[in-house]
Design a protein that fits this description.
Blueprint lengths: L1 E5 L3 H13 L3 E5 L2 H11 L3 E5 L7 H10 L8 E5 L4 H9 L4 E4 L4 H16 L7 E4 L2 E4 L4 E4 L2 E3 L3 H12 L5 E2 H8 L9 H14 L6 E4 L3 E4 L5
Parallel strand pairs: 1-2, 1-3, 3-4, 4-5
Antiparallel strand pairs: 6-7, 7-8, 8-9, 10-12, 11-12
Helix pairs in contact: 1-5, 2-3, 6-8
Length: 227
């Protein structure tokens, strides 16, 4: 599996490269946003570790550009940021990142985040190949979502989230359960990660957004409207 590491700090790149290579990953590097976009399109990495603070084009803008391009729209992205404020973390998720890691970080935790995200990407196809709720269709084998026949572009995390909600239609899924099943985290982390992804998923679902209901104080469930 190939990982593109984007950071303008040589020491940070070397630390990440060493630990990823020790874990068996092929590593590409870029030191600014423009180089990151070029290498993402040329080498088709399996995942990008993307620093927020980059010269020329910052990481958030790079993330937005990658998500707008059909060739890279579903590419898993983990944001790296030295900023600890909530707004910076939320912005990364709003712009399409699948996860974030705040500097300074534990190399072991970073590798774990990479492994979990890639594991979801290459996980075996289950027996259920197609899920449908009214005009909302999810094709597992093709990794496609259609609403009223129109294709909807989702990130790998959004696809996984929607798939779990559809598979468990009518059952309430707590935020902690979703963190474990979608993100693969056994330890408690900020559950607002779930809220941000649900909000972005609803925005993309358009007329089907009302199928995902909020259960106040608990989590979410997907239901077919009664009207």
């Amino acid at each position: 599996m190939r990982v593109l590491v984007v950071d303008d700090e040589p020491d940070a790149i070397e630390l990440i490269r060493f630990n990823l290579k020790a874990s068996g990953y092929d590593v590409l590097t870029a030191e600014d946003g423009e180089e990151a976009l070029l290498k993402a399109r040329k080498f088709s990495p399996d995942l990008i570790l993307l620093d927020v603070m980059l010269p020329e084009i910052d990481g958030l803008e790079v993330c937005k550009i990658l998500r707008r391009d059909p060739a890279t729209a579903t590419l898993p992205i983990i944001m790296l940021t030295a900023k600890a404020s909530e707004i910076d973390r939320v912005l990364g998720l709003e712009f399409g990142a699948d996860d974030y890691v705040t500097k300074p970080f534990s190399p072991r935790e970073l590798v774990l985040r990479v492994r979990n995200l890639l594991k979801r990407k290459e996980s075996k196809q289950e027996e259920i190949e197609r899920l449908q709720v009214r005009d909302l269709e999810l094709d597992v084998a093709r990794h496609e979502v259609r609403i009223a026949g129109e294709m909807v572009e989702l990130t790998p995390t959004e696809f996984k989230l929607l798939r779990i909600l559809m598979e468990r239609k009518g059952r309430v899924q707590s935020r902690d359960r979703l963190l474990q099943d979608v993100w693969g985290y056994d330890q408690l982390i900020d559950t607002r990660t779930v809220d941000t992804h649900v909000r972005r998923l609803r925005e993309k679902m358009g007329i089907a957004a009302g199928y995902v209901f909020t259960v106040r104080g608990v989590g979410y469930r997907l239901m077919e409207p009664t009207d």
